[in-house]
Amino acid sequence: MSAPTYAQFHFAFLLPVVAVLLAAATVTRTRTTRPTVWSVGRPVYWSGVAVVTLVAVVYTTPWDNYLIARGVWGYGEGQTFVHLGLAPLGEYAFFVLQPILTALWLGQLTLRRGWPEANALGRTAEGGRTLDVDRLAVSPRFLGGVAALAVGLVGVACLTTAETFYLGAILAWAAPVLFIQWVVGLPQLLYQRRTVALGVAVPTVYLWIIDRIALATGIWHISPTYTTGIAPFGLPIEEALFFLVTNLFVVQGLVLFRWVVDRWA
């Protein structure tokens, strides 16, 4: 029996989940009054999803093609067809479907009321309690910037050895996005930390599972030369980190987009 193709992978594992989440979004919007991250039917929400998806495609494409050229990963014989550059069309479809899947899941979750103001002084009431906005507004941004710089430095250091090259490529590539998101809006992300955590965790675990299936069936493969060899349950930690980081990009980007729109409203 022939191995599944990249296109069949999408039809089996991504498109059905997107369809179910779209149906759930419709029910949430029309049949319930539960407040969610966004009413999925509102055009402004999809403006945010479109922006995040476009950035994902533009930012990931050169990085992805470079790692393919370097031999960090490749694809099974006969399991991909049309290529744009070195990456198959299915790879670009993944760049689009993953943000949509994660955004639809995030749209089912609730947000805390209000936002800490970036430059507010003193204390403000929230939900019957008081919120110290000074500490949320200044210290986390600085620490977030330092943390993102540290991620980038570790990534650059890892690029110097073959066995940590893929790990380093992920960290160095992730650091600029994390720096922007954390310096701009870490207080808001911390304020909505439960939604951010749940928004990231569920799609990440699902993508870990289907990535493991794709590796097992040979749709794509990861070079042992450029990886640490640490692979819990057969999933290289580099792959696990990649999906964690990319879902973090999407969720943080959409939460911050919501914050910006709320401030303009």
Short description:
With 265 residues, the chain is mostly helical. 67% of the residues lie in helices and 7% in strands.
Word description of this protein:
With 265 residues, the chain is mainly alpha-helical. It has one domain. It contains eight helices and six strands; from the N terminus they run H-H-E-E-E-H-E-E-H-H-H-H-E-H. A two-stranded antiparallel ribbon has the order 1-6. Strands 2-3 form a two-stranded antiparallel ribbon. A hairpin with a 2-residue loop joins strand 4 and strand 5. Helix 1 runs parallel beside helix 3, helix 2 packs antiparallel against helix 3 and helix 3 crosses helix 8. It is globular and about 50 Å long. It starts with 5 loop residues before the first helix and ends with a helix.
Strand arrangement within the widest β-sheet reads 1-6
User: Can you give the mean pLDDT?
Assistant: 89
| Helix/strand structural class | mainly alpha
Secondary-structure element order, N to C: HHEEEHEEHHHHEH
Write down the domain tally.
Answer: 1
Helix content: 55-70%
Tally of separate helices: 8
Largest sheet: 2 strands, antiparallel
Using only C-alpha atoms, the radius of gyration works out to 20 Å
Number of strand segments: 6
Termini Cα gap: 57 Å
Shape estimate: globular
Provide the β-strand percentage band: 5-15%
Query: Residue ranges: pLDDT <50 for 5 or more in a row?
Result: 119-131, 133-137
